[in-house]
Design a protein that fits this description.
About 55% of the residues lie in helices and about 5% in strands. By secondary structure, the chain is mainly alpha-helical. It has a domain at about 1-55. The strands form two sheets. It has a two-stranded antiparallel sheet with strand order 1-2. Helix 1 (about 10-25) packs antiparallel against helix 2 (about 40-55).
């Protein structure tokens, strides 16, 4: 779970523990040692070192307990996330997506996008004005501008190209119709006939 190396004494705590062990082994019980202007016997020196060591072990224990708690929380997180997603779905099914009661359960209710008829009219007018300014066409307008699929043209002996259905081609075909005896626009009679 946690690394036992992290719970070993180090730094000042290790130095104090080493001093404690060395004091017991190397300083005679009846001798005195002066430290910082204060005279200590072996027992007083050991008591002073013990009082300085007192906060270290609980701090290491608390650090190890914290590491264990954080690890347990981390391992629990996927289950928490799954539960919250399912709980939210159940509350939405029970109360509705936009219900203000969802806020009491810690979820934000869905807010519908508020667009009014007036805003839609303004939006449409802006789009129409932009089309006019830019000269863009709708697909229907583009289709009306395209040339018909069956385009034909007449080439005269002089090399002039006349598209089919043009006024020049129609005027050239009218005299031919008049000389062939076909009725014209003058009441159905041909010139030179009574």
């Amino acid at each position: 779970m946690t690394n036992p190396k992290n719970n070993q004494p180090k730094g000042d705590e290790l130095k104090l523990l080493t001093a404690q062990t060395a004091t017991q082994a190397n300083i005679p019980a009846k001798s005195t040692v002066v430290i910082g202007g204060v005279s200590y016997t072996q027992a007083q020196l050991l008591a002073k070192i013990a009082s300085l060591l007192a906060p270290y072990q609980p701090a290491r224990d608390a650090k190890q307990a914290l590491a264990a708690a954080v690890l347990a929380k981390k391992q629990n997180q996927p289950a928490v996330q799954t539960f919250l997603v399912e709980f939210h779905a159940a509350m939405v099914a029970l109360f509705g997506r936009g219900s203000p009661l969802l806020a009491k359960f810690g979820f934000n209710p869905h807010k519908a996008k508020a667009t009014s008829g007036g805003k839609n009219v303004v939006k449409g007018a802006k789009a129409k004005r932009t089309r006019e300014l830019r000269g863009t066409l709708t697909p229907t307008q583009k289709a009306a501008l395209k040339a018909p699929a069956d385009t034909t043209a007449t080439v005269s002996s002089t090399g002039t190209v006349t598209p089919a259905g043009s006024p020049a081609q129609q005027s050239a075909s009218e005299p031919a119709a008049a000389s062939s005896g076909a009725p014209t626009g003058n009441g159905g009679s041909t010139p030179g006939q009574p």
